[in-house]
Amino acid sequence: MPPEKAAAASSGGVPTTHLGKEAAAGAASSGEIPQKKATPSSGGSAGSGALHGNSTSQYSEESAAGHPSKKARTASSLKIPQKHHKADISLSGGTLQKQSSEVEADTSSSGEVLHEQEHPKHFQESDPNEIVHAKEENKHVQEANHLIEQLNELGGMGEDISEEEFLAYHDKLPRIPCYIVARKLTNEELDEQDLRHALCRFRYYKYKLKEEGKEDTFDLKDVSEAECDQAFLKKQRFFRRFEEISTLDWYFHPDYCKDPSLSDYQRLVLRNYGSSEYARWTEYHEFLHSHDVEEEYVKFCEELFKKLEWMEGYLDFPRPSHKWDRISSRGALQAIKLASTTFQKITASLAYYGYFECKQSMAYDRTWYKDLDGVHFEIWCRVTEKQRCSSGGALKRDYTMERLESEYHTCTAKVPPGTEKDKAKELIAKAVKNRLNKPKTYAQYISKKIHIARVAGILPLKDSKEQCS
Question: Where do Polar residues bias regions lie (predicted)?
Answer without folding.
Answer: 92-111
